[in-house]
User: Fold this.
Amino acid sequence: MEKEKTLADQKREQLCSKPKNGYDRMPKEEQAALDAYCEEYKKFLDNGMTERECVAYTIRLAEARGFQPYVRGMALKAGDKVYRSNRGKSIMLAVIGTEPLSAGVNIGAAHIDSPRLDLKPNPLYEENELAFLKTHYYGGIKKYQWVAIPLELHGVVALKDGRVIDVCLGREPGEQQLVITDLLPHLAQDQVKKPLGTAIPAENLNVLVGSRPFADDEGSERVKLQVLDLLYEKYGFTEEDFLSAELSMVPAYRAVDIGLDRSMIGAYGQDDRVCGYASLAGLFDAKNLRRTGICMLADKEEIGSEGVSGMKSRAFDTFVSDLCDSQGVDLKVCYEHSFCLSADVTAAYDPNYADVYEKRNSALLNYGMGFCKYTGSRGKSGASDASAEVVAYTRRIMDEAGVIWQMAELGKTDQGGGGTVAVYLAERNIDTLDAGVPVLSMHAPFEVTGKLDCYMTYKGMKAVYEA
Ligand code: MN
Ligand code: MN
Assistant:
């Protein structure tokens, strides 16, 4: 016999919010779709270790689904799928809705650059018959995490004659990889007493690239010469060509399942390709769009969204205004009716570092897509701080679409903080809310996400486009 509910029970049910683990809320039938989605996401990670590779892979996926490069002036009708690559480093994709652009667009914005070590303009040198590449860190991975892990070299070398050479070394099974050495503990008496932030200075992040001298030669710097010879043989560029190159060291890790239960994904660059892929796949799968859906995959977020391929660039306005022009719509009218979900990762609550989190307002692994009304640091500095109405609108969309989601802040109020591209969309007069996937070991060479949260973020982005 069922116990009769007391008044308190009834009130508790009616009034209290009681978050539950996503696995207790998700219908069992969704598990197969979740697993299938995560397999495609892992491929996206492995094929895009830099923003350029990400754009190239995105174009491959998009063209296979009927997207075409948008040429200014092209007529557009509902259902058309177009994209514009911004210099091969960021990309914007649109699916035209049945309503005119004056009704606004639904935007999913994420970034596809990740923290890494860029090579300096004059990187190659030899010391004590070892050859090294000097690096300049891009974005914030704690420096001690770069040493003694396998690294790959990715990027491009642009030649004076206009050719651009793609470089990708270390990704193929069995291919040679590179490393930054660390000091053995036996001689680290002084090093281990230093604060974590200074124990590995930036100028020590020198990548070991060779040790064998060029044969049959009495000249100087034979190891360096041997490395240059190998680079020329393999890629066809010389030492001076480093001056016009964008070459980066990235961790040599493939995306893998984590946990005995395979409930998580471990990989480099999940900030923010996890949201980049969710925004992209959401647009691919969105059905019957009323408003035009735009997926924006930006570069340079990790260094402040600056530059011609960052979110501050007018390239975004140019793309949307080109779309507007095709319908005779004023860009400002489009913007003021638009909505953007700025999708970027947030910190997942980590019981190993409990003291930096505020438990009641932290994103939990497997509790779904994380929404942040505001990001920023200290007194919300640098936050776009969405309005209550925008948050309510999003709550409705998510609940109607069966998305499991949570509301969170990144850590304790005065512990630190972070920003996203949200501010740069909001300042264009577009209602914008921050959202994204909670990450463990965020900004490490190997980051961990919960598969359920990855999948729910995809569902959430799809729901935004379909709204
Ligand atoms: Mn990010
Ligand atoms: Mn980041």
Notes: The chain is about 30% helix and 25% strand.
